[in-house]
Write a structure and sequence with these properties.
30 strands; globular; 2% helix; 36% strand; single chain; 456 residues; mainly beta; four-stranded antiparallel sheet
Amino acid sequence: MNTNQLIIMSTILIGAIGLSASSNVDRQLTTNAQGHVLTNINAWSADGQWLAYDVRTGDSFNGSRIEQVNVRTGEVRHIYTAVNGAMCGVVTCHPIEPLVIFIHGPEHPSPDWEYSFVHRRGAVVDTRRPGVARPLDAMNYAPPFVAGALRGGSHVHVFSPDGSWVSFTYEDAVLARLDADLSAPKHEPNQRNVGVAVPSGPVQVSQSHRRSHDGDWFSVLVTRTVGHPQPGSDEISKAFEEGWVGRDGYVRADGTRQRRALAFQGLVTAPNGRQHAEVFIVDLSDDLTRAGGTPLEGTPTTLPAPPLGVKQRRLTFTADRKFPGVAQSPRHWLRTSPDGTQIGFLMPDESGIVQLWTVSPLGGAPRQVTRNETDIASAFTWSADGRWASHIMDGSVCVTEMTNGRTQRLTAKGNAAEAPLPSACVFSPDGREIAYMRAVGADSERFTQIFVVTLP
């Protein structure tokens, strides 16, 4: 069947659960001979009418435009085009306002300053004023360092559920240069960490480095890593793939509310010396502009430090399992239930099949949600009512009911060439539709296109 046609597909329950009589419609939204790439969270506009995407092709960061497509009419609008050799991508939407945020690479790239993990930043565009990008984070690549500015590259920027803060992952250019210099003084290594930007800017930096620039928001790191974690300890060498906890945080054991927190994967070292990822949480203080005894801005040999009152905790302990740790394939970000009581993650079961699990932000034993015979193959998102999780599995877009773990197909099983891509699978704000991607075309003319499927 031509992929530009509407495709009526049966909803099929996975495994031995049986068949459903319901049917639903799968619609292709984009058709241009270019890539169309959704981010795995917040791809929908606040009103649910538009999907934002970038135009990368393949696995490279090579897109120069941010666009959006109207889910009802198919209208395409250009939001932003990078200039002067810069690239942009990985766009997400504000949950309330008509804003988008994305990664922006360096303009006028040079051999010593090309796009990389340590050479990128966040940019914000109001879709009512397309083409005008504001800098999220200030970057300060040489002393004197300034509180609220970073010194490297930020990545996958996601607004908090109330739209007031932004989370991201980060790597440090100052320490990366020292890592590459065998004669460098003793220093902390460059390691991936999680950061947060708050609207307490603007932040102005000195022009001691030609690539330094000001930013509109005040940015800090909120996680702590160490160069060589003690085996069996809660120390981590990497903090990554974070997600906001709940619409309004979570309720602590004493009944009070932690208003803002991020769940993330932390890379620990097991007693046997092997590394694996565990679920961590970081509770955020209401004021992230106050230093906690070490400089927020970092030093020439140390990372920027978390603010006063920020607390990092480990939630899972899986070193003794047959297949320890949060699954690293598929790559996924931790996502939580809207009420903040459950943090979702992927982990192999005792047979090595990647299943969906949850753990409380208070800790305790993880709960295995799914018991499917096939790996979950993509990142997942949670529906607004907390009932469903969406993901790719066994060549189909699927949903899992979170109370009983039953998984349903929403699209027919496709062969390897036609199956949904194992990446984004994003619920609409009202929970009625799911956006995802397929590769469309023949041979060398295949491009990633955006589809939407409606829940029955």
